[in-house]
Design goal:
The protein is α/β, with parallel strands linked by helices. It is built from 11 helices and 10 strands. The strands form 2 sheets. A 6-stranded mixed beta sheet has the order 1-2-3-5-7-10, with helices on both faces. The longest helix is centred in the N-terminal third of the chain and has 16 residues.
């Protein structure tokens, strides 16, 4: 049995982490995720990816320390998570982390690799590594500072104190907080809306947001077939009909 399940609804793919009891990641789980991401990236039928936890009230608790404590090669440990999360961050389609519960340690790196984050109001965020003699190794530190600023990041990472969903929303760690029973419907609604947009424009916008050459990203879409269709639809006061890439 794998660590992930893949489901699909129309053009929306769902990856659900299912590693009881705590949804922590070992090397096999990371390799499986990388394989699934490559499959989805090459599937023209998928226009949005949602990443979530399959265990009630657990999104991801980072690395499985029962597994990783056997690996003393720091480079191997660090690259194992960083490389996979980079694949997720660099996907051309929009990605949403549906945070259905607790996020601990480098589980936050998984959520931050997604473009959008929607959290259940039961979600909590905690980075306890310094209390146990190490620091996050899968890209969490730099990504978190870039996302919420050094002051908030230091508060989370140096103290290890938990942050509730409302606090995460207040500092910009998540975009929205919703009741647990509304998380899936709201994420599905947003995914369907995104799936109707221009795939070319979304990919170019993601590239620019991730630090790509903004001029090159603009030139990629200006004059394209989606550009023609979008402007024609705007002038004709109708919904655009973009071709699937």
């Amino acid at each position: 049995m794998g660590s992930w399940t893949r489901d699909q609804s129309d053009s929306i793919a769902f990856l659900k982490l299912n590693r009881p009891p705590v949804n922590a990641l070992d090397k096999d789980a990371l390799d499986e995720l990388a394989c699934l991401l490559r499959q989805i990236d090459s599937d023209s039928g998928v226009r949005v990816l949602v990443v979530t936890g399959a265990i009630d009230n657990l999104f991801c608790t980072g690395g499985d320390l029962k597994y990783w404590r056997k690996e003393t090669n720091a480079i191997a440990v660090s690259s194992a998570g960083r490389d996979v999360f980079a694949l997720l961050a660099q996907m051309e389609i929009p990605t949403i982390a549906a945070i259905n519960g607790h996020v601990i340690g480098d589980g936050l790196a998984l959520a931050m690799a997604c473009d959008l984050r929607v959290a259940s109001d039961r979600a909590t965020f905690r980075l306890p590594e310094t209390a146990y003699g190490f620091i996050p190794g899968w890209g969490t530190v730099r990504e978190l500072v870039g996302l919420i600023g050094r002051t908030h990041a230091a508060e989370l990472m140096l103290t290890g104190r938990p942050l509730d969903a409302a606090g995460a929303h207040r500092i910009g760690l998540v975009g929205d907080v919703v009741p647990p029973d509304r998380l899936q419907p709201i994420v599905l609604e947003r995914s369907l809306a995104l799936s109707s947009f221009s795939g070319t424009a979304l990919a170019a916008m993601k590239c620019a947001l991730r630090g790509g050459d903004e001029v090159a990203c603009f030139e990629r879409v200006w004059g394209s077939s989606d550009w023609h269709e979008g402007i024609d639809a705007l002038l004709e006061k109708r919904a655009p009909r973009f071709e699937r890439q």
